[in-house]
Amino acid sequence: MKVLVIGSGGREHALIRKIGQSERVEEVFVIRGNEAMAREATVVDIAENDQEKIVNFAKDNQIDIVVVGPEQPLIDGLSDRLTAAGIKTFGPNARAAQMEGSKDFAKVLMAKYDIPTANYETIDNKEDALAYVKAQGTPIVIKYDGLAAGKGVVVAMDETMANEAINDFYAEEGAKVVFEEYLEGEEFSLMVFVNDDFCIPFDTIAQDHKRAYDGDAGPNTGGMGAYCPVNHISEKIIERTNNEIVYPVVEAMHKEGLNYFGILYVGAIVTADGPKVIEFNARFGDPEAQVLLRRLDTDFIELIEAVDQKQPLDLVWQNKTICGVVLASNGYPGNYDKGHVVEGYDYQKDYIVSALKQVDGQWVTNGGRVMIALGEGQDLQEARVNSYKLVEHIKSKGLFYRNDIGNKGL
Ligand code: AMP
Ligand code: GLY
């Protein structure tokens, strides 16, 4: 079987590795990938947004299945286009991808089907927004309606911060902004493999670290580290999440005719009233994919086929904890420089790469999040120690990382 993965970051590096481990797979291609993937997949130099070239490539190379990693191509309709050309594609169609692409779309669906989430109001002009925040008070959560790579959310602790975010978000013509009730509790990420009215929820959750700096300080990022399993969030909470959120949302998407085929990422928070939805994503989490796929023993192709055929499947996990610490470019998620030399990396399996390239025989940084170091252990304590050993092995003037990944689980 030939598999094509779309994307170029750490999530996709984890995907090509996991897919390549399947005995069923003879070749893995990646568009456009990164240079660190070259030993594990055929890296194809086509732009991620060049749908026509991607479809032609998939046809010419008799690709059996395309797995789309990031949200942008899904929202742009790549899955629709490939499917129309007769190519099996794991990743939702453009309309279904609105579950991630529009915060308002997801909120309207949750309200209609009574899925537990923060109370909200979508507002399309600055004056009403300012008045709304004055009336509601703070803390309040302010979310840009469209895609923003994890950076379109401001948790405003006071009115000054809220007004600043309002000024920012409405600077763009026609902006829609979602205002949400602030929820307090532990967050977790649950991946659900969905085929229309059928789903296989992962029975292992992961925890991400969204803020840039230690102690959950600083701006929101795409994610600065993750670990799994998350033993301090009980089976009971996961069961409630499945019963109160996952199955109802899958049913809701089916009733709305979204024909969802792909991963639905449920970002949830454990409140005093039980689990509530923080966000949905139309794809694997990054860096959640890196830790989850490292721990998953089940063959990925077998899993996709089970979802495709609507056959329940018991997932098999290694009896280990995986902890991943992201190394990111200084300045990320704001402005940062590229091109800093990175020493200590040489295709080792304990590193998964988001953005490195080779210049004159040296690895240099080539993006915001650069790589993740994956430590494993019998428990979180051990996994954490091992991941930081791997972090310290990497030397670069251009990188920073959080020192407290996994602390909440200890
Ligand atoms: P999102 O992109 O919607 O996941 O938001 C990014 C981060 O903002 C989340 O991971 C939370 O840490 C925080 N956040 C989002 N919505 C809320 C909320 N209603 N209450 C508290 N924190 C939130
Ligand atoms: N790690 C959060 C996300 O993938 O959106």
Overview of the molecule:
- By secondary structure, this protein is α+β, with helices and mostly antiparallel strands.
- The chain is built from twelve helices and 24 strands.
- It has helices at residues 10-20, 51-60, 71-75, 78-84, 98-101, 103-112, 126-136, 159-169, 235-255, 288-295, 300-308, 380-393; strands at 2-7, 27-32, 42-44, 65-68, 89-90, 120-123, 140-144, 153-156, 177-181, 186-195, 198-201, 207-208, 211-213, 217-220, 225-228, 261-271, 274-281, 321-329, 341-342, 351-353, 356-359, 362-365, 369-377, 399-400.
- Strands 12, 15, 18, 20, 23 and 24 form a six-stranded antiparallel β-sheet that branches. A five-stranded parallel β-sheet has the order 3-2-1-4-5.
- Helix 1 packs parallel to helix 10 (288-295) and helix 7 runs antiparallel to helix 8.
- Glycine binds at residues 150, 208, 222-223, 281, 285-286, 288.
* Backbone shape: globular
**How big a fraction of the residues is strand?**
25-35%
Number of strands: 24
Helix proportion of residues, in percent?
25-40%
Could you describe the largest sheet, including whether it forms a barrel? 6 strands, antiparallel
Rg computed from alpha carbons, rounded to a whole number of angstroms: 20 Å
Number of helices: 12
Q: Label the structural class.
A: alpha+beta
Bound compounds, please? Answer: adenosine monophosphate, glycine
Compute the average pLDDT. 96
- End-to-end distance: 42 Å
Contiguous uncertain segments of 5+ residues: none
